[in-house]
Amino acid sequence: MEVKDYVVLRQVDAQNSTIDATRNSLIWHIPASYYSNQRSTSCSVSLIDAFGQDTNTTDEVLSIRANLTATNQYNSANSNTYLGKLPLGKPSINNTMKLMTSARPTQIEFKLINETQADGLPVAAITGCVFVLEFCYYNSEDTADYLVKQYTPTIV
Questions:
Q1: 15-71 confidence digits (pLDDT tens)
Q2: C-alpha to C-alpha distances, 98 to 68, 74, 135, 152, nearest whole angstrom
């Protein structure tokens, strides 16, 4: 049986819980004691649920970028790891990317980016956000073997 870690991040519990036209960043501190030290260091993270509300009817869809590393993602904006999207005022969209990341983060920061705005800030004030992250752990040796098997040597 595969046991995963789930981290539920509520906007109201963030270090600064205000998201509006001047601020788009939320930071949470996760106690190291939450994670088991018996877990592998080979880990992936997925955003499996996200929802929130804006204070008007702009129907914004915001990109969620995180301070988590992602060794298997290229981001053309070269700014943080793209986790998924937050459709405000609508049912959440299941984001299925599995990003290889550092295990057991103690600080998680999200930036909520409006891709249609020049400054990237949300148009309206955002409230009631909840994000659910799923951390999956893998056997380090098996993961290394799998990555080596995918390697294609080239002759220069």
A1: 999 998 899 999 999 998 887 777 778 889 999 989 888 877 667 788 899 998 888
A2: 12, 13, 9, 22
> What class does CATH assign to 5-150?
mainly beta
Name the pTM for this structure. 0.83
* Spatial separation of the C-alpha atoms in residues 134 and 4, rounded to whole Å: 7
Residue ranges per structural domain of the chain: 5-150
